Structures are given as C-alpha cells and as structure tokens.
C-alpha cells in the first residue's frame, strides 16, 4: 500500500532534493548518559516479550509491507499478475484486496496482544483515553482523505502495474503531511494503545512506525524511477 505516487511528477529537476540523514553524526552527538530511560523501563516492565500473541503481531506488522513490495515489484518486472487477471486494473484490485485483508489481520493481531497483556495504571486515565480517541479520529481522517485523493489504484501501488497518475496530488491531506496513509494508520494504532492503556500497544505502534519508515525509503526511489521512465518515453515519442 502506497501513497508515494501522490508526490511524483514527470520533471524530477523541479522537485527539491531530499535531505540525507546524518545518522553517524547525529548518534555521535547524543550524550546517552543524560537520557532519562525511566519511562521506557517502566513500559518494558509491563510487557511479556515471550507471549505468542506479541510475536504474531510483530510478524504481521513486518510481513505486510514486505509482501506488497515484493509482489508489486515482481508484477512491475514480469506483468504476470496483469496477464493472470486479464488486465492491470483487475490485477491491482486483486492485490489491493489482499493487502486490505492482511491489514485487517494485522489490526486484529495487535488488538489481541493488547487485550492479553497487562494494562498500565499510569495510562489508565481519562485524559489519556481522550487523547487516544482524538488520535484515532485524526488517523481516520488522514487515511480516508488519502484514499479519496488517490483512488483505489493510486493507493494500492497502481503505478507498479503501469497505472500512472497524470499529475501530482497536492490537495488534502497531502498539503499538510507526506505519506498520510501510513502516518494516519500509525496514529490509529497509537490511539488504540492509549485508549487501552496498553504498554505493548505502544511498542507495537513504534514497530509499525519503524516498518513504515523503511517501506517509504524503499518505495519512494522505486516509484520515482517509474515516473522518470515514463517521462523519458514521452520525450522520445
């Protein structure tokens, strides 16, 4: 699942270069001796990392973007799904529905892990509950807004199937945040963790955020190349 296509156009020279992360320099400048790890220690004390439901949730979180990236790149390289389904659109819809089912299972597995594991009394407060509810509303708005702006094929990797967007999407919610589908989904999970006063939910949400960050770094350059190739073909025509 990707909304990276919304930030692609056919003139790469007009887009600002991305700012590289200074990983080594940033890490070297951090004084870990002055960091307060008490909160993290308290959260981790309430988590059973040996619980099978936790393992299943983590596997589901990691598997989903791995699955759709591998399958979509395979389709882009071979067009096997398009031939199997009879058209790129039907193939994209097939993959899209598979991704939806996988994401439903991911949400289910995370919910099960939160219910099985301990709640944290520090989080079990009215203000935390309402903060979680607000995050879920915000996340839903971002996810739904992104889907409406991109459409089904634009959301579910249509550009890998040769279904390219004519122009860059700049309307809501892309005018306020990049990759709103991913970060809206992350906000939903964080809200669910706060509502459930669930420490394991916080850890699983952090895992979702990290996995999405990796997915964005993988999908972005590849999608960029797809649109560069189209721009090159148009210049030759």
TrEMBL record:
| A single Gene Ontology CC term | endoplasmic reticulum membrane
Query: Where is S-adenosyl-L-methionine bound in this sequence?
Result: 137-139, 219-220
Cellular localisation: Endoplasmic reticulum membrane; Mitochondrion membrane
Kindly report every residue range on the membrane side named Lumenal.
1-51, 73-84, 154-196
Q: Which Gene3D superfamilies match?
A: 1.20.120.1630
This protein's record includes keyword S-adenosyl-L-methionine: yes
InterPro entries the record matches = PEMT/MFAP (IPR024960), Phopholipid_MeTrfase (IPR007318)
Q: Which reaction does it catalyse?
A: a 1,2-diacyl-sn-glycero-3-phospho-N-methylethanolamine + S-adenosyl-L-methionine = a 1,2-diacyl-sn-glycero-3-phospho-N,N-dimethylethanolamine + S-adenosyl-L-homocysteine + H(+); a 1,2-diacyl-sn-glycero-3-phosphoethanolamine + S-adenosyl-L-methionine = a 1,2-diacyl-sn-glycero-3-phospho-N-methylethanolamine + S-adenosyl-L-homocysteine + H(+); 1-hexadecanoyl-2-(4Z,7Z,10Z,13Z,16Z,19Z-docosahexaenoyl)-sn-glycero-3-phosphoethanolamine + S-adenosyl-L-methionine = 1-hexadecanoyl-2-(4Z,7Z,10Z,13Z,16Z,19Z-docosahexaenoyl)-sn-glycero-3-phospho-N-methylethanolamine + S-adenosyl-L-homocysteine + H(+); 1,2-di-(9Z-octadecenoyl)-sn-glycero-3-phospho-N-methylethanolamine + S-adenosyl-L-methionine = 1,2-di-(9Z-octadecenoyl)-sn-glycero-3-phospho-N,N-dimethylethanolamine + S-adenosyl-L-homocysteine + H(+)
Q: In which pathway does it act?
A: Lipid metabolism; Phospholipid metabolism; phosphatidylcholine biosynthesis
Predominant location category? endoplasmic reticulum
Q: What is its EC number?
A: 2.1.1.17, 2.1.1.71
Q: Which GO terms describe its biological process?
A: methylation; phosphatidylcholine biosynthetic process
* Keywords attached to this entry: Endoplasmic reticulum, Lipid biosynthesis, Lipid metabolism, Membrane, Methyltransferase, Mitochondrion, Phospholipid biosynthesis, Phospholipid metabolism, S-adenosyl-L-methionine, Transferase, Transmembrane, Transmembrane helix
Protein's UniProt keywords contain Hydrolase: no
Q: Which family does it belong to?
A: Belongs to the class VI-like SAM-binding methyltransferase superfamily. PEMT/PEM2 methyltransferase family.
Cited function: Catalyzes the three sequential steps of the methylation pathway for the biosynthesis of phosphatidylcholine, a critical and essential component for membrane structure.
Output this protein's name. Phosphatidylethanolamine N-methyltransferase
